[in-house]
Amino acid sequence: MKLTILGCYSATPRTFTNPTSQVLEINNHIFLIDCGEGTQVALRRNKVKFSRIKHIFISHLHGDHFFGLIGLVSTFRLLGRDTPLHIYGPQGIKEAITLQLKLSNSWTDFPLHFHELTHTGPEIIFEDEKVTVQTIPLQHRVYCNGFLFREKPGERQLVLSKVQNYDIDIAYYRSIKKGKDVVLENGEVIPNSELTLDPRPVKSYAFCSDTRYDEAKIEQIKEVTVLYHESTFLESHKHLCAKTGHSSAIEAATIAQKANVGTLILGHYSTRYENIEIFKDEANTVFDHVEVADDGKVFEF
Amino acid sequence: MKLTILGCYSATPRTFTNPTSQVLEINNHIFLIDCGEGTQVALRRNKVKFSRIKHIFISHLHGDHFFGLIGLVSTFRLLGRDTPLHIYGPQGIKEAITLQLKLSNSWTDFPLHFHELTHTGPEIIFEDEKVTVQTIPLQHRVYCNGFLFREKPGERQLVLSKVQNYDIDIAYYRSIKKGKDVVLENGEVIPNSELTLDPRPVKSYAFCSDTRYDEAKIEQIKEVTVLYHESTFLESHKHLCAKTGHSSAIEAATIAQKANVGTLILGHYSTRYENIEIFKDEANTVFDHVEVADDGKVFEF
Lengths: 301, 301
Prior knowledge:
homodimer; alpha/beta; Metallo-beta-lactamase, Chain A; seven-stranded mixed beta sheet; globular; nuclease (chains A, B); endonuclease (chains A, B); Ribonuclease Z (chains A, B); zinc ion binding (chains A, B)
């Protein structure tokens, strides 16, 4: 599981910082999450192959999470894309994008599928044999979802030495990995548990930006491998959290601690701060495993 | 008259090149012309004060001229702007911007005036005591206007030595500059022509992007101080001009030569070319006074 931060600052793009966008690689999928202005340039800078992006998830329709989408869709068109693109986001996203495509007389040649979100509870919005993506309802100033990406459990892991001990033919390996017992030629039954180990633990990633402090989501994100949680403010400005619908570093860490996640990544910093390491310092007073996102940073888990 | 090129490449923004946007300073006005994605960052990089921009002119609604506008408007709002902003552009521009402001629940606190253009002939769209701005109808794949910025003639220039010779009181200087003759105390009339020189020549700037080769505009832009004319293609790709509604460097130079302009600035280069100096070489075969635009370049006239 690999996470590339294209942008992780709030509000407006600046010369050296980008608004929210990130790329999650999980089980051979490349998921683009949020798409602030300048995302297409950040994708180029971080050498993400445009053609591998098939699913884009937009948390909410504030500009710093969304204004780069129309440009990216248009560039896909100019590059001659023909594979389908799926866009998941709040109701209204389809009208905003299609209106601009219409006005520029530039309808895409590739299939463009919008999946407009309106539910206020968690909802599975993508699923295949390897991964599920579920919305995480967030509390912000406008309708807003986080996204929970979770691998599906893989097959059981074959213990090769054991299987070879019993001289089991390779033709049975597939069914053993699926959990089947084996009946030897002499009628002896070898229980699956003797031949395999549990599947490797599934990895999961919860993206939560933007949101005020809200414990309602804790149950849903319990024990995820990685939680990205916005931390717009430091303690010095925590009085702004309620009004703006954002969280402080300590609030993000409190969610991480209560949900017992593996690692917390902080981001969505207010551009008023020069030094983002202080976010980590403050979060560490509550939770140990804290990383700070920064534009261009890559996390592998 | 000062022109700052924020971006001058066609199609899509890239790591080191920006789509079309430029800032024209003329008679204390700061006019923003076109606004491709990333324009707000380019404005910061070129240290243009956001608050001085009061008028934005959009040639057409293709993304590389327009997709940065919503982000800039939103940033004005976030910066607490309260002065009015005037946006001039093709019909539809108001719906595209206001829909996105509505979806993000971020209506501006400052007055936002849209001036939607539909005329197919030249039209004066801005005028004050110092400057006029007129549309230049262009031939592109969608409805598109260039813009002609022209100073109004200033006052006549006082020849101080002459005025002092006649011992004329300073109280009369203003009326002399406006062209009035002076009657001395002894009744003698001093004709204005003896006391003043003609006003300094007015400067003018014609912005023409995007357009196929079209001589119809020549009369309108005759003898402008500076013509910016798109030159998307070199001779090697001139067969693409008609289909895409663009011009070659030689076509741009031909317009400049026939309109007898002071200086031609080339831009809107296709991103297929590595070396933009070749545009100048080709244009120079037809017209002498050629400059090549490039991102961050400043021209003073």
